């Protein structure tokens, strides 16, 4: 009987999951950054105009820089049945939160948006 050599290929790892921090030697979500982003709420011109602050909708790992990224979103009413959704991403740069990307705003039906928020749940 011929014995095959043990498989030395590395296991496939999904870097978008938070549980990889328990795997030694692999980058993962920074626990301190996760705690910070869960408490942090960005403010900008929308808050100055009296609208609510952005809500945290996702925490993910940037595959290029291997850094924790927080995705925030705010939906503002634009007519009687629609909302305009603004989304931005933040990273920690030099011990401070820094907006690194802003997505193009898009319009969505209010009922569809509330259903999306309900399905998505908290990050």
Strand and helix layout:
Blueprint: H1 31-39, H2 45-48, E1 55-61, E2 68-77, E3 82-93, E4 96-102, E5 106-109, H3 110-120
Antiparallel strand pairs: 1-2, 2-3, 3-4, 3-5
Task: Tell me about this structure.
20% of the residues lie in helices and 33% in strands. The longest helix is centred in the last third of the chain and has 11 residues, at 110-120. It is α+β, with helices and mostly antiparallel strands. It has one domain (18-120). The chain is built from three helices and five strands.
Largest sheet, in brief, is: 5 strands, antiparallel
Low confidence ranges: 3-26
Q: Please give the count of helices.
A: 3
Q: Give the SSE order as H and E letters.
A: HHEEEEEH
Rough outline: elongated
Percentage of β-strand residues? 25-35%
Query: SS-based structural class?
Result: alpha+beta
Estimate percent helicity.
10-25%
Number of strands: 5
Q: Give the end-to-end Cα distance, rounded to a whole number of Å.
A: 52 Å
Rg of Cα set: 19 Å
| Count of folded domains | 1
* Overall pLDDT confidence: 74
Short description:
The protein is built from 3 helices and 5 strands. With 123 residues, it is α+β, with helices and mostly antiparallel strands.
Task: Name the descriptors.
123 residues, 3 helices, 5 strands, 5-stranded antiparallel sheet, 33% strand, alpha+beta
């Amino acid at each position: 009987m011929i014995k095959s050599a043990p498989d030395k290929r590395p296991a496939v790892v999904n870097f978008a999951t938070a549980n990889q921090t328990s795997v030694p030697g692999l980058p993962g979500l920074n626990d301190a950054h996760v705690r910070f982003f869960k408490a942090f709420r960005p403010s900008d011109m929308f808050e100055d105009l009296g609208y609510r602050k952005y809500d945290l909708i996702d925490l993910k790992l940037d595959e290029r820089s291997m850094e924790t990224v927080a995705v925030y979103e705010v939906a503002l009413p634009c007519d009687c049945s629609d909302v305009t959704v603004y989304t931005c991403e933040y990273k920690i740069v030099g011990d401070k939160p820094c907006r690194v990307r802003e997505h193009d705003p898009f319009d969505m039906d209010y009922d569809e948006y509330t259903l999306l928020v309900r399905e998505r749940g908290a990050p």
